[in-house]
Amino acid sequence: MRVLFVKLSSLGDVVHTLPAAMDLWRSVPAVQIDWVVERGFAPLVQTCEAVQRVIPCDLRRWRHAPFSTQTRREWAVFKRDLQAQAYDAVIDLQGLSKSALVSFMARLTATGRRHAMAQRTEGSGYEAPTRWVADVTHEQPWHSHACQRGRLLVSQAMGYAVPARVDFGLRVQGAASRVSDSPEVIVPPGTVALVHGTSRDDKRWPDEHWVALGQRLQAQGRSLAFLHGNDAEWQRSEVLAQSLPGAVVWPRLSLDQMLSPLSRCAGVVGVDSGPSHLAVALNLPHVQLYNFDTAWRTGPLDAPHQRAVFGQPCPSVETVWSAWQACEGVAP
Fold first, then answer.
1. pLDDT value at position 180?
2. What is the mean pLDDT of the chain?
């Protein structure tokens, strides 16, 4: 049985889809799971125990120069790789025109079928080509967590009950061994990683709040590490670290490079962003900050050592500190 997942982006969405792959891998004997994903997220998917083959694409970049020689050449290579294998099931877990296109291009076996969601769900994007391309569509609960929605869709497509256990299947040590040029990152015992970076300014937590929280963590004896994914986040990390003597700014890390040092942290506090969702996947004590009441859709599930906090215009330092202390008191 060969199954193709189509979940292209973004980081948090990809992380939330990992348990669906693990469910399928554990529920269907001898299944081979391949996955089409944006190239930047391919290293993360490659660390999932359930995934045999990752097919990277660059749709985000290609759309800016669709008729260039380079795009046409790269598109031809992608199409060749995508169609090298025929699949018994192609599952569109994204529900957008771009994922429908990839699903349509994928090659099926004689009895293969394309599966997709039948409709959008609350707070999530959905586009009509999803239905046009799919051979079989599956109704989804309107109000559902992104992780559970993907798990349900795959179970509907493949005919098994959703397992009780949520497993992201990340092979941290395997990831580290494959990255020969990974920068050395020292993680002292008790380090708490602070994730302030986000692609949306309205998800940010104020700098003075980060400093106040960092001071409390340092008074507790914690070491602090700041993460960043671009130049603006690096500059902000440096400014925050200067206000917290002893805090360090990690070098910029790719996703596979980040997994090992992040997994060695005592916990993570972060806004609603990809590295925060990685903290959940790594089963770390974690507090996730929301300026909007959307944690039901993307926040930590039911682990007692992982909590989401919501406040407007943003959560207070006291609320975040109380949540951190609660997470600390529960062993993963």
1. 44
2. 94
Residues 92 and 115 in one domain: yes
| Residue 248 structural domain | 177-328
Same domain? 140 vs 181: no
Sheet holding 86-92, edge to edge: 51-57, 32-38, 2-6, 86-92, 107-117, 136-138
My answer on whether 73 and 140 are in the same domain is yes
Say which CATH number the domain at 116 has: 3.40.50.2000
CB within 8 A of 324, min separation 6: which ones? 213, 217, 267, 269, 285, 287
Average pLDDT over residues 208-237: 97
pLDDT in tens, 296-320: 999 999 899 999 999 999 999 999 9
Cα gap 225→84, rounded to integer Å: 43
Q: How far is CA 214 from CA 16, 19, 30, 217, in A?
A: 28, 32, 48, 5
One domain, residues 110 and 60: yes
Residue 118 tokens read as 């039948």
Torsions phi, psi for 96 (to 5 deg): -120, 170
Kindly give, in sequence order, each residue whose CB lies less than 8 Å from that of residue 115, ignoring residues fewer than 6 positions away: 89, 90, 91, 92, 134, 135, 136, 137, 138, 153, 156, 157
99 Cβ partners below 8 Å, 6+ apart? 6, 7, 8, 92, 93, 130
Residue 292 DSSP SS3 = coil
Nearest to 288 by CA among 263, 315, 266, 325: 315
pTM of the model: 0.94
**Backbone phi, then psi, for 214, in 5-degree steps?**
-60, -40
- Cβ contacts of residue 94 below 8 Å, gap of 6+? 6, 7, 8, 13
150 and 202 inside one domain: no
Residues 248 and 310 in one domain: yes
